[in-house]
Amino acid sequence: AQSVTQLDSQVPVFEEAPVELRCNYSSSVSVYLFWYVQYPNQGLQLLLKYLSGSTLVKGINGFEAEFNKSQTSFHLRKPSVHISDTAEYFCAVSDTRPGNTGKLIFGQGTTLQVKP
Amino acid sequence: DSGVTQTPKHLITATGQRVTLRCSPRSGDLSVYWYQQSLDQGLQFLIQYYNGEERAKGNILERFSAQQFPDLHSELNLSSLELGDSALYFCASSVGENGGGYTFGSGTRLTVV
Is the four-CA dihedral B41, B33, B101, A100 of positive or negative sign? Predict the structure, then answer.
């Protein structure tokens, strides 16, 4: 079974400052990793994903994440945030084994609050 | 617009009632996933269908059921509703049955009073 822990429930940051949202996972098998963003009253939008290959993954809106297998982490970073980045961010994992159904296990979410 | 269409957007109903939530996947996607988002439980996987067949089941209550029709749209049926069923219900779709990052709809907000 897999589990995901997002280490911060809320992250306040000033506009144009860098930000890191932390995600750790637990799994006995290899996993795929994802970050989703949820803006108020909207659905979830895929920011980026790690399936294989380079451990540094670039996504939309200037976000990137680094997969660290030894530390079982997949932290999300952005060098300079905007007010419009204010949203809920979810880290998720899924099983890579053959026959995997693509079911996602989500963390509890991190609220990014960008202040002017 | 993500391409995944969910209707209705909002639903208010009384305890004990039955409701049906509808999802139309993105064009070309064969898999449909249902998730429930609540304040206490977070995002929980309910069920997946692939090309009309049930593929995986998660934390779905016996009072809940789903199906995927030949045109690939899916319906989630919730019956004997309780106050605790109030939540956002999301549908997502993907091309294959293994996920790999799928597209979510904007959700149906169910309020049980």
Answer: positive
Q: Which chain B residues are Cβ-neighbours of A101 within 8 angstroms?
A: 48, 55-56, 97-99
- Region of B10 please: left (phi>0), alpha (psi -120 to 50) or beta: beta
Q: How far apart are CA B92 and CA B90, in angstroms?
A: 7
Question: Considering only alpha carbons, which residue of chain A is nearest residue B58?
Answer: A103
Q: Using only the alpha carbons of chain B, give its radius of gyration.
A: 13
Angstrom CA distances, B73 to A31, A73, B12, B29, B97, stand at 29, 36, 23, 10, 15
A44: pLDDT confidence band, cut at 50, 70 and 90? very high
At B105 the pLDDT is 95
Are A102 and B98 within 8 A, CB to CB? yes
Instruction: Report CA torsion sign: A19, A111, B11, B56.
Output: positive
pLDDT band at A52 (very low <50, low <70, confident <90, very high): confident
Token pair recorded at residue B3: 């391409």
Tens-place pLDDT, residues B64-81: 999 999 999 999 999 999
Predicted confidence at residue A96, as pLDDT, reads: 80
CB pairs under 8 A between A and B: 63
User: A88: exposed, middle or buried (C-beta count within 10 Å: 0-12, 13-18, 19+)?
Assistant: middle
